[in-house]
What we know:
- The structure holds two protein chains of two kinds.
- Chain A is α/β, with parallel strands linked by helices.
- In chain A, 36% of the residues lie in helices and 16% in strands.
- In chain A, helix 2 links the parallel strand 4 and strand 5.
- Chain A starts with 11 loop residues before the first strand and ends with a helix.
- At the A-B interface, helix 1, strand 2 and helix 3 of A face strand 1, helix 8, strand 8, helix 11 and helix 14 of B.
Amino acid sequence: MHDNPKNGDFRLRILLAGTGGQGVITAARLLSEYFVRKGDQVLSAQLHGMAQRGGAVQSTVCVNSGISPALPRGGADVVLGCEPVEAARTLPYVSADTVVFINTAPIVPFVLSQNYVLESGSSEYPDLGMLEESLRAATSRVYPLDATKMAQEAGSLKTINVVMLGCLFGAGVVPYPSQDFIDTIMVLAPPNLAETNTAAFRMGVEFAESLNVVEQAS
Amino acid sequence: MSHPVLKDAPGASICMLGNHAIVRGALEAGLQFFSCYPGTPSSEVGDLLARVSKPAGVLFEYSINEKVAVEVAFAASLTGARSMCGMKHLGLNYAGDPISTMPYVGVEGGMVIVSAGDPSAITSPNEQDQRHFSRFLYYPVFDPATPDDAYRMTRYAFDFSEKTRLPVIMRPTTRVCHTSGMVEYGPLPQSRNEIRFTKNPPRYVPIPVNARRMRKELIDRFALAEELLGQSGFFPRRGSGTMGVIASGVGYAYASEILDELGLYDRVSLLKIGAYPIPETILSEFLSSVESVLVVEELTPYVEEIVSLNAFRLGRSIPVYGKNSGHFPVEFEYNPDMVEDAIRKFLQLEPRTIVEVALPELPPRPPVLCSGCPHRTSFYLARKVFGKNTVYVNDIGCYTLGYGEPLHSCDVLLCMGSSISQASGIARTTGKRTVAYIGDSTFFHSGLPPLANAVQANDDITVVILNNYITAMTGFQPSFSAWESQYPDSSNNGQKDRGIVLLDAVKGLGVKEVYSVDPFDEAQTLDAFKKAKSSKGVNVVICNSPCAVHRVRVEPDGKRAPYIIDQEKCNACSLCVRVLGCPGIVVEDGVYFIDASMCDGCDLCAYVCNRDAIHQVEVPEHA
């Protein structure tokens, strides 16, 4: 996709989604800092104001993309959905060209344990297959993974966001080697988490590399 | 390691939050004094300055409210200091009295009021357009489209303020405040304004005889402001076409990116409005060169009406499209799709072909009171005593989340500090005891006068002060409420011994019946509510318990052991879920259990359970 990238000669719009506490905003900050260090122009925005514990959070990281802080419909090149329902919520920004990674481990919204009833009459967490299918209606490039399990194996549930970032790099859409990003984690993340973060990141990279995302598209 | 905002690195390209870019702009302009009251989406301005004010040599305070913040900053400016204060849009209204006359008196050191706007009312009870303060009270208002604009405009604004002697308003909206973008640093200042107050009463005292003179001078100074803005570079024009697009704020960011993609600058001319008053020379030149105009601006049709008026004065009968023409809605934020659709309609281009994909029905994740939040306990116990027919008036803070199921503790709400006055009004007309809830920070912000007012009127109200010792909703800024246990960063402005003891304050206002309780001591709290309910006149119950989230952050041993549900005893009656709404209690397939990672160990669910099925996990004694 990018044989010999010069800084600034590619455009990449990444949408991260999850729930409060999953590290969506931290992941966006890491990515932003990474691309800035590479010499790219970065614009990153939080799309929801009230990110209380457990609330829905969306963040964009737009690289070499202009000055608009919000994505147009279908404007995401990559979606990193840290939670299934939150991944599905990004659907308006998904086009036929969008690559979507979904962590399949649900975080059940608190309202569903509190006698809350959806308009459909259901008070159950939506069916995982249905959530994936709704995204597949927009793009064929939907890749589910159990990032929560991988994060656990890496040593901390707090690294779900880093597993998802690994997917981004493993998918071949970032024109820089993934090792570079590990260097950024080493500098910016707490030193005591460096090993765990690296392991989580590598799991994401390996998962996405096995999919041949870019070849499938071309 | 010092914060990147302090870096003396001219030419460095840094990706920074819009609110932080404002701080950098102010530091490069030689900021000397800063005050604020937190409010989303403005809070990060003050929170960053709280961290860097000492090394940056800036006098800093979290003020008790916005009126005080503006007044201290303005007075600092009168001594020559470059001053800034921060607040959200509603805070500017609270400071309405001082800001009305400040332009008359005029500044010495440059003064910038950062008042962040919240289109779509994402974290506010209303949306409003502070740009009107420009014509209403003679304020130059800056309207940044990006973090970089916010940085450059703030840096520019101090010198501009000194030249015109006008205080200025910096009005970023949520999408600018909470967006991180590239900023290219300039140098930090070599010198700063000299501090000196020279007595000159005719200049600083707007008694009528002086005010009338100031009024005339103000018109001249505002005209100078317009002239200077004409040379500021904040009104760039792109393109040479006769289809004019005029855009401000984040609307400009959307419009310029869409026009870039469409590549139509031979047909279109784009004019950016970066500040108000809009220099008439710039606008007239633009309007003379186009045949029709589309205005892209959020909130009110402010620019649109100025454009129409200007075109009329020029004798140009060109159509002006925008909100009045239905190209855009009057209310709420814009988004790129809305702007693209309007631009295509304006340019008579084909509408975009959108592949409609149905969004499945997804459960919402509304904000809730945290597990372990002392407000939940206070609400639950008060309602147990006062019952469902009492009117509960609530106020602005986390405790607004007492609204609706299952706590039903918010029947009326208006603005900061209004709970006590509204309870007075309701109690006086209905003749029924009314309950007001207010947090400690909000009480000090604007609850003191209405409480004194209620005492004078002898209203039958019970004021419940939810004292969590912190301004939690906006990000844990310090409160004025004194805290015995002296958390490292919670006492006001680092002045550990200067907090105010709520009990003393309430008694000092003349309240005779005051109870100071720990809401997690249920018996004591119920007893206080019962006494309060059965007596006459004003009484106050102060519920003292630290914010659960903040306590765990600052106290190494703050985490209490979680509770568990004994499945042998639990009969799935659902009472705990029905009355508490604690996110730590989870129901799966009819089985009730507590998520240990969420549980704060507060004991309320154990207190509520009729079957004694909930117990704290036993932990070994502290070593």
